[in-house]
Amino acid sequence: MDPAELADRLGRWSAGRGPLYLLLAARLRRLVDEGELPPGTALPPDRALASALAVGRGTVVAAYEQLRLDGRIIRRQGSGTRVAGPARPGPRDTTGAPVFLHLLEPRDDDVILLACAAPTAPPAALPAAYERALSQLATVTNDIGYHPSGHWRLRRAIADHYTRRGVPTDPEDVLITNGGQQALSLLARAFVEPGGTVLVEAPTYPGAIEAFREQAASLRTLPVGLDGFETVARTRPELAYLVSTHHNPTGGVLPPLARRRLAATAATADVPLVDDEVLAHLAFPGQPTPPPLAGETVISLGSLSKSVWGGLRIGWIRAARPIIDRLARLRAVHDLGGNVAAQLAAAELLPRLETLCRDTAADRQARHDHLRAELARRLPQWQAPPVTGGQTLWVRLPHGDGDSFAQTALRHGVAVLPGSGLDASGGSREFVRIHFLADPGTLTEAVHRLATAWQTYGGGADRGAPAPRSMAI
């Protein structure tokens, strides 16, 4: 197993109390017992795993020894370290656990999570929307409750939402999903054959990378903010994916002219172009929101997870009607429909979505400014360019790499997302992604812990890192 992959699966292994080697052994033992590391799996050499986890080799050696004594692993000179038991064939493995999956589960420890960005509580408008939705449910008759394409009321609300933004849309052009991640998975299944080419930005949203890899796609990359028109036309991928507004993770916004040219190029090349709009409405005060991409082959993807609350599992796909019909048939095989009460509540919120986001814009900008000020004060060597919206900063470390520093930061009680997990090309290793949605006091404490971790990591050294590359859009 690749050391970086095992490090991802280990998650926040060092966040507990006690010696590091015992914490590491406990987490490895759990992965073995739960079958995530099946019998026969070859584990990384001591030095390789120690490097991936940013710990001393002795920590890994001691952890492996604990597992050997427990009978979980076998270590032989010359043949390496393997999980005990006979190797057995399993299903085709196209992906490991997403790099962020272990950060989504609630924890009781004191780790400050700056890796996964989402509102920490539902707005007051959401319970009120549910009250209205429940009153509507009380009047339902002649409806068995299965809506594979989504409830008609919500499909119409989303269609009106796009029409108001300058892209005329009918309800039949909309498919409702259980969040944006399900929308990505459906699109990957519908368009991508094993080995087929998918064009993505580098870096990009890690959930998209995982969805495409799950289909065994061949990922081709283009730099964020560069037009990419020639790449779309030249490679003619099975699917192209981008985040055009408040890009995740860099925060950039693709200008209107570039949007029109990109949509036209995709249409000419007959390439389905997925525009992830999950963050589109999170502009700071006074910042314009460009119109959505529109074109014959453009597929818009949206969700309320970032603009309202992650617990409201409502997403959607807007596309040409034949694509929507195809996706609805595919979804019906796996999922006969979403929660009707949630969809009715979302239909109540959609007409007010822009207003809800404007109401929180000043607070989001204040937290963005506070985090940047704290980073500049305590970690002046770090480069954290400002953004005009969204939820995250794309931070460049002056030396070292994000993977090993993220492990060091985790041991100091703060979780950040290493850049390598957001870059299908294997680059961005000198970056980490940090969100600014926490309250100012929490952000101050988080930066204090990051600064302490940086000193432990070797923050005073100059290791000759390459010159910064532009992330401007």
Automatic annotation (TrEMBL):
<dbReference type="InterPro" id="IPR036390">
    <property type="entry name" value="WH_DNA-bd_sf"/>
</dbReference>
<dbReference type="InterPro" id="IPR015421">
    <property type="entry name" value="PyrdxlP-dep_Trfase_major"/>
</dbReference>
<dbReference type="InterPro" id="IPR051446">
    <property type="entry name" value="HTH_trans_reg/aminotransferase"/>
</dbReference>
<dbReference type="InterPro" id="IPR000524">
    <property type="entry name" value="Tscrpt_reg_HTH_GntR"/>
</dbReference>
<dbReference type="GO" id="GO:0008483">
    <property type="term" value="F:transaminase activity"/>
</dbReference>
<keyword id="KW-0238">DNA-binding</keyword>
<dbReference type="InterPro" id="IPR004839">
    <property type="entry name" value="Aminotransferase_I/II_large"/>
</dbReference>
<dbReference type="InterPro" id="IPR015424">
    <property type="entry name" value="PyrdxlP-dep_Trfase"/>
</dbReference>
<keyword id="KW-0808">Transferase</keyword>
<dbReference type="Pfam" id="PF00392">
    <property type="entry name" value="GntR"/>
</dbReference>
<dbReference type="Pfam" id="PF00155">
    <property type="entry name" value="Aminotran_1_2"/>
</dbReference>
<keyword id="KW-0663">Pyridoxal phosphate</keyword>
<feature type="domain" description="HTH gntR-type">
    <location>
        <begin position="18"/>
        <end position="86"/>
    </location>
</feature>
<protein>
    <submittedName>
        <fullName>PLP-dependent aminotransferase family protein</fullName>
    </submittedName>
</protein>
<keyword id="KW-0032">Aminotransferase</keyword>
<keyword id="KW-0804">Transcription</keyword>
<comment type="similarity">
    <text>In the C-terminal section; belongs to the class-I pyridoxal-phosphate-dependent aminotransferase family.</text>
</comment>
<dbReference type="InterPro" id="IPR036388">
    <property type="entry name" value="WH-like_DNA-bd_sf"/>
</dbReference>
<keyword id="KW-0805">Transcription regulation</keyword>
